[in-house]
Amino acid sequence: MAKRWAKERKEDEGELSDELFEEMLGTMLPIACAGEKCEKRGHLMFPGDSPYEGGIFMGNGWTSVAAVDHPAVNFLCPDCFQREVEQNHVTSKQRTTAHPPVPG
């Protein structure tokens, strides 16, 4: 994992407030499209400090979908996601599972 600054600082800006430091800090992860024969790459940004409640795709149209190997997720670029929707391989509707939910 790599820590990245959200914006460049000038040397004469002085010390950062805790609030500004927290806003600027984030973890960026490189991602690859899981589409067949697709070589597109992108980044997923987790803003702030851990623990993370969500992330931001750093490119328009990227999405994540539940993978066949639950509980994993796959990342798809906009073109591959559209292709998967057209082939009815992905949906935003909840699907029923063959396994009963695990109580917990």
Overall description:
The chain is of the alpha+beta class and 104 residues long. It is 15% helix and 28% strand. The chain is built from two helices and six strands, in the order βαβββββα. The chain has helices spanning 18-24, 78-86, and strands at 2-5, 25-32, 41-47, 56-57, 63-66, 73-76. The strands form two sheets. It has a four-stranded antiparallel β-sheet. A two-stranded antiparallel sheet has the order 5-6.
Mean pLDDT: 78
Shape: flat
Could you describe the largest sheet, including whether it forms a barrel? 4 strands, antiparallel
Number of helices: 2
Structural class assignment:
alpha+beta
Q: Major sheet: order of its strands? A: 1-2-3-4
Unreliably modeled segments: 1-10
In short:
The chain is an alpha+beta fold and 104 residues long.
Summary keywords:
single chain; 104 residues; alpha+beta; four-stranded antiparallel sheet; 2 helices; 6 strands; flat; disordered N terminus
Give the helices and strands, then pairings.
Blueprint: E1 2-5, H1 18-24, E2 25-32, E3 41-47, E4 56-57, E5 63-66, E6 73-76, H2 78-86
Antiparallel strand pairs: 1-2, 2-3, 3-4, 5-6
